[in-house]
Amino acid sequence: MVFGIYARQLREYRRRASKRYSIRQIASRVGMEPAYLSKIERGDMPPPSEQAIRRLAAELGEDADLLLGLAGKVATDVCEIITRRPILFAELIRCLSDVSDDQLMAFVIKVRNNEY
Predict the structure, then answer these.
(1) Is the same domain home to 15 and 52?
(2) What is residue 116's predicted lDDT score, i.e. its pLDDT?
(3) What's the domain count of the chain?
(4) End-to-end CA distance of the chain, in Å?
(5) What does the DSSP assignment read for 52-68?
(6) What is the pTM (predicted TM-score) of this model?
């Protein structure tokens, strides 16, 4: 439900600036029926597939991982990484659950730059 509400708010915000963000036009560009997208936005239907969420994110200029998270989904590539070492990644995620966003971002940057 959170996914649909957020997607609708984002689309309507974009629609105020451009008519190309009508529900019909967005649905057409992401490959779904407008009625289906409307039901998703209202929370009458569960979120669509990962691929559809990724297309919707691209159309709305939003981060796909954010929309996937709001949909209660995890990106396939992330699942594959976790699945290779489930115990280690589960422990890492649990240990980082209470870390502030700033601290977590600093950690991510260090890991990305091989400074750990």
Answers:
(1) yes
(2) 78
(3) 2
(4) 38
(5) HHHHHHHHHT--HHHHH
(6) 0.88
